[in-house]
Amino acid sequence: MDETTRRLAAARENALSGGTSARVRPEVRASWDRARKRGVHPDRSLAPVEPTADLVGELTRKHRLADVWPTLLRTIGDAATQPGHLVFISDPAGRLLRVVGDPATRRNAERARLVPGALWNEEQVGTSGVGTALALGRPFQVRGPEHYLSVAADFNCSAAPIVDPVTGETVGTIDVTYPVASANALAMPLVAAAARLAGAQLGEQTRQRDDEVRARYVDNVLRRSGIRSALVGVDGRMLHTTPAGWLLPQWAAGLGEDGPMTLPDGQRVVVERLSPSGPFAVHGVDHPDRDGELLRVQALGRGRALVHVDGMPHELSLRHSELVVLLAAHPGGMSAEEMARQAYGPNGKAVTVRAEMTRLRRVLGYRLRSDPYRLAGRVSADFLELERSLAERTGGEALDCYPAPLLPASRAAGIEVLRDGLHLRVRRRLISHGDADAIARWIASPHGRDDVFVRRMAAAPDEHASPGE
């Protein structure tokens, strides 16, 4: 044991027994104090090992560090193969993911639980290369007796956090560990260089993913021209804003569930989940409906339905118009199979409905839910409002709300049922009320000019027959 190691060992013994020592680096002494306050015991505590090795292997393969592991090994070079040396990486929680070294060194390290799955953060083991580098957020070397656990006091550890420069996220650490008797002046600069190179590679991967997300989803932001919109990534970072600066980064990071919400500065926005795990489109709402109805459907007399989503109008294709009308008429929701029958007939396929729903969600956003398919939140539709209010209206008032039948160009079976039923009930109301002016308007309209019974009624108003004729 050299003089430096003997001095550190004496200082450690003194400090851990309750004394003070000016011969220990301030960062190490502060780390020892943190460990003691957490109840970590230098002789009885060990790094917990979780999860199992199989789960660690799965975690390693899926972890972002798996992509930069070759870069780390190339940079570390001979340190990974020198006798007595270990190289390992950890996740941000200090869990060791991979351990590389010769078999004899690895067997020796197992006694200190330097194994895959072991948690080497400060909360569990006190001062260590991995844990203290994570706690300080910078490269750090722990020399032999500076370790808080006695079982690790025979090792020198040089570790550095690996940080994605784009997101600022600490992805994990790289560490080189070797016996205190082995001098390796290059370990610390090698580890720091490896962490920088790996971080740069991760940053480039993040930028590429951001570009891919923008290319795929930015049209969901730009389609609502003239309003404040933003594209927010899964991790809460803003990938695009229109206009720039209207949504502050700290508010974007707080977005989660889709739907309407109010930001801390009082701005009303609507958040739309663009895929199950994100990203999100965020739209400012300048003039929310006073009654809270964020989705309105106009389909009477229209070849294609007009929907207002959060105050923005969208004219749908005929097929999407049929689907929206069916959903509005069935607030409890419909399965893909039910919608296929109603929209495409007995030979309709559920897979076709699912494909159309995916396209329709680009317009409706969070308002379109699945399992079963349904419209979320408050919905108003002109044909439903007329249906509900018919009993309270005169014949003329009914015609004021009935410019023409529901989606007259549609041949979908479900729409024909809705259209014919509403048309019959409006006609019955007209006949039962007997308003001459309303009857004249009916027979002058394209949808009433061939109504023989009403024409006869207009010609001979004193002769009455059953309204159902």
From TrEMBL:
Gene3D superfamilies linked to this entry: 3.30.450.40
Domain of life: Bacteria
Domain (GAF): residue spans on this chain: 99-201
InterPro entries: GAF, GAF-like_dom_sf
Any matching Pfam family: GAF
Annotated stretches, region: Disordered: 1-29
Name of this protein: GAF domain-containing protein
Organism for this UniProt entry: Saccharopolyspora antimicrobica
Organism lineage string: Bacteria, Bacillati, Actinomycetota, Actinomycetes, Pseudonocardiales
